[in-house]
Amino acid sequence: MKKSGKKTRRSVKKTVAKQQSIQSQQGKKDRKAKKPEAQPPATGSPPAQPLPHLDKPGDENQLRPAPQYAAPDYRGSGKLAGMSALITGGDSGIGRSVAILFAREGANVAICYLDEHADARKTCELIEAEGGKSLAISGDVQDLKFCAHSVQQVIQQFGGLNILVNNAAFQEHAASLADLTPDRVAQTFGTNLFGYLHMSQSALPYLSAGDCIINTGSVTGLRGSAHLLDYSATKGAIHAFTKSLALNLVDQGIRVNAVAPGPVWTPLNPADLGDDALARFGSETHLGRAAQPEEISPAYVFLAAPSCSRYITGLVLPITGDIEG
Known about the structure:
alpha/beta; 10 helices
């Protein structure tokens, strides 16, 4: 793991403090309202899950039950042999599972993360157990200089970059539009949208024909969410950004696609929702439960591997647990 400079560490601490302040303020509003986070009524049987509370940004090592990320039934076949990947938010959740499968397919994998150091170390161990080289870089994707520095670290460590996965995210529910303070909106858009822009700008000079960018969108960007107003807006923007960048880069042979997951059991939601909403998390889907990260990550392999998706660009692939269409 690379040790970040003092300036980067100060920036990370400042961002974590902002996220936890936003979380605390919303918690006070929820308690004052004396009701759940106003999630829409769920149908079907709620999944049997404990109700952990995680301080933002959320450590996967504290989450119970532990997310399933290892995809033991997935067999690698060298689809990404000789390639190098950079995954933001790669320390946990979907990002961790994607990192493991990329390594299983032969890639070297770097991850960017905020301050979840124990999670990042674990993910690096998992990458290396699959035979890949690993690199973990702590910092805030809202900072363009950090994004540029991260890409440079990957180039120096691995000798190139072929796959960028923009996956880092910030989410905090809100009962009403009035709850969206400027600080909260800035944090959500800064991480979820500007972070994707910054990292793509930083990576692009090193990508060549056959390489790709994969963005993590969301079902909320496809359908909206009554209580994730700013988060949904960023995800809708990510979908539009994906299609627009795909058009922009098509002549260079660089593919740009997105995956739009539905509810997934990762630290993002236990670090946001309260007990009542968590108890029903995912039960409104047609499959009646939240996904595990290992059920989402193979889609990223599909979109990353030229052998699978050479003729696919500008796609927003929904994996929502619902019958689409």
